[in-house]
Design a protein that fits this description.
Blueprint lengths: L1 H16 L5 H6 L5 E8 L3 E2 L3 H11 L4 E4 L6 E2 L3 E9 H32 L8 E3 L9 H10 L13 E3 L1 H6 L4 H11 L6 E5 L2 H9 L4 E5 L3 H11 L4 E5 L7 H4 L6 E3 L2 H4 L6 E5 L1
Enzyme class: transferase
Family: Belongs to the NadC/ModD family.
Subunit structure: Hexamer formed by 3 homodimers.
Length: 280
C-alpha cells in the first residue's frame, strides 16, 4: 500500500505543482514562517483515507507533523477536529488541496457505504452482504476498497486478476453461449478462483447452475424475478443482485434470500465530504 499511495499522491502533486511549484505561497509566505493547522470535519461522516492525507504532507515536507485525534472508520459530528498539524506554512499550504481531495473522496465513499449498511441492518436476520464494484475513481482503487470496508460494507474482487466474472460481453465473445463461457472458464481459470457469471433471466440462470457456476449475478432483475431466481437456485449457487441498485431498495432485497448486492454507486457517485484545513 505504501508504494501505491506514493504513486497516487506524487501524481496528484505533480498535477498541482507543475514545474514552478506553489507560486502563490512562494510569493506571499516567508520561507521561515511556521504555523499550525487543523483538519476539521464540517458535517457528519465516516472517516477514511487518513493515512493518505498524512502521507501527502510528508511527501511535500517531512518536517510537517500530523497528529490524528480520530481514525478511519469513526463517525464524526458536524464541526469536529480530526487532526492537528504543525510545520512550515508554505508546506502546509502546498499540500493542502491534494490532501483534502483524497480524504474528502475517501470519506464520501465510506459514508455512502455506512448509510447503505444502516439501511440493510434495519431488516433483522438478513444474510445479505453489500459489495462494492470496480467502478472506482481512476488511480484510487486501493483507497476506495478500504473506504468501503471502513464504512462497514464488503469488497468484491479487487480487479480483473483475482476473480472470474463472466459478463454479457464475454458471453457475446464466445457466440452468446453461457455453457461455453463457463466450460472455458473452468478449463482455463486458476484452479482456486471462484467463477461468477452474469444472467438476465431464469433460463440463463438454470443454464449457469447446470454448467457449474459458483456465483450467479442477477443483472437488472425486479423483485419478483429475484424471488423466482431464489426459488430456482434453491441454495445450489450463491446469488448476487446488481444493476442500478439504490440504497432505498436494500430493505426489500434483504428479505428476498439473495446472498450479495453489489452497488457501483458507493464508489462512482459518492459525494465528497466537507472537510477543511484551517490555518491557525
Amino acid at each position: 500500500m505504501d508504494a501505491y499511495l506514493d504513486r497516487l499522491i506524487n501524481l496528484s502533486l505533480d498535477e498541482d505543482l507543475g514545474s514552478a511549484g506553489d507560486v502563490t505561497s512562494l510569493a506571499v509566505v516567508p520561507a521561515d514562517a511556521m504555523g499550525t493547522a487543523t483538519l476539521l470535519a464540517k458535517e457528519h461522516m465516516v472517516l477514511s483515507g487518513l493515512a493518505a492525507f498524512a502521507r501527502t504532507f510528508e511527501l511535500v515536507d517531512p518536517s510537517v507533523e500530523v497528529k490524528f485525534v480520530m481514525k478511519d472508520g469513526q463517525k464524526t459530528k458536524a464541526t469536529q477536529v480530526v487532526a492537528d498539524l504543525k510545520g512550515p506554512l508554505r508546506s502546509l499550504l502546498t499540500a493542502e488541496r491534494t490532501a483534502l481531495n483524497i480524504v474528502q473522496r475517501c470519506a464520501g465513499m465510506a459514508t455512502a457505504a455506512s448509510q447503505a449498511v444502516a439501511l440493510l441492518n434495519s431488516v433483522r436476520g438478513t444474510r445479505l452482504k453489500i459489495l462494492d464494484t470496480r467502478k472506482t475513481p481512476p488511480g484510487m482503487r486501493g483507497l476506495a476498497k478500504q473506504a468501503i470496508k471502513d464504512g462497514g460494507a464488503h469488497n468484491h474482487r479487487f480487479g480483473l486478476f483475482d476473480g472470474v466474472l463472466i459478463k454479457d460481453n464475454h458471453i457475446a465473445a464466445v457466440g452468446g453461449s453461457i455453457s461455453k463461457a463457463l466450460e472455458r472458464a473452468k478449463a482455463n481459470a486458476p484452479r482456486l478462483v471462484k467463477i461468477e457469471i452474469e444472467v438476465t433471466n431464469l433460463k440463463q440462470l438454470k443454464e449457469a447452475i447446470d454448467h457449474g457456476a459458483h456465483i450467479v449475478m442477477l443483472d437488472n432483475m425486479d423483485d419478483e424475478q429475484i424471488k423466482d431466481a431464489v426459488s430456482l437456485a434453491d441454495g445450489r449457487v450463491e446469488l448476487e443482485v446488481s444493476g442500478g441498485i439504490t440504497a432505498e431498495r436494500l430493505p426489500r432485497l434483504a428479505k428476498l434470500g439473495v446472498d450479495y448486492v453489489s452497488m457501483g454507486a458507493l464508489t462512482h457517485s459518492a459525494r465528497a465530504m466537507d472537510l477543511s484545513l484551517e490555518i491557525a
